[in-house]
């Protein structure tokens, strides 16, 4: 008999789709030639992602649902433009105020 409340299973099946979109957008934007001089160390990438994610709405999806792909497509269409502008702003902010001394990298 399956447990009535299995928190580990819920954690595994609950996904914040905004996180996926932000990380994909970061990868796309940071690969452009105009961003070649932006620091891409682990800390700066975390700061860029955190900045963007804290400014965009979280959208959780239950990954065990059959209509997951439909939900993701609808959501991504609504958020992609916001993610692009928010990630670009995050890159600018983090680049001006890195949490490290650029000369040591």
Which terms summarize this structure?
105 residues; mainly alpha; two-stranded antiparallel ribbon; 59% helix; 6% strand
How would you describe the overall organization of this protein?
With 105 residues, the protein is mainly alpha-helical. The protein has one domain. The protein is 59% helix and 6% strand. The chain contains four helices and two strands, in the order αβααβα. It has helices at residues 7-13, 17-30, 42-53, 68-96; strands at 14-16, 60-62. Strands 1-2 form a two-stranded antiparallel sheet. Helix 2 (17-30) crosses helix 4 (68-96). The radius of gyration is 17 Å and the shape is elongated. The model has no long low-confidence stretch (mean pLDDT 85). It comes from Halothermothrix orenii (strain H 168 / OCM 544 / DSM 9562). This is Late competence development protein ComFB. Pfam families: ComFB. InterPro entries: ComFB.
């Amino acid at each position: 008999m399956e447990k009535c409340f299995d928190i580990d299973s819920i954690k595994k099946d609950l996904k914040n789709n905004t996180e996926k979109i932000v990380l994909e957008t970061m990868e796309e934007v940071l690969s452009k030639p105009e961003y070649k001089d932006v620091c891409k160390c682990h800390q700066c990438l975390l700061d860029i992602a955190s900045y963007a994610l804290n400014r965009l709405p979280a959208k959780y999806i239950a990954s065990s649902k059959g209509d997951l792909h439909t939900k993701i497509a609808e959501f991504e269409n609504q958020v992609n433009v916001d993610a692009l502008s928010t990630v670009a702003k995050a890159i600018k902010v983090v680049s001006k105020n890195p949490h490290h001394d650029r000369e040591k990298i």
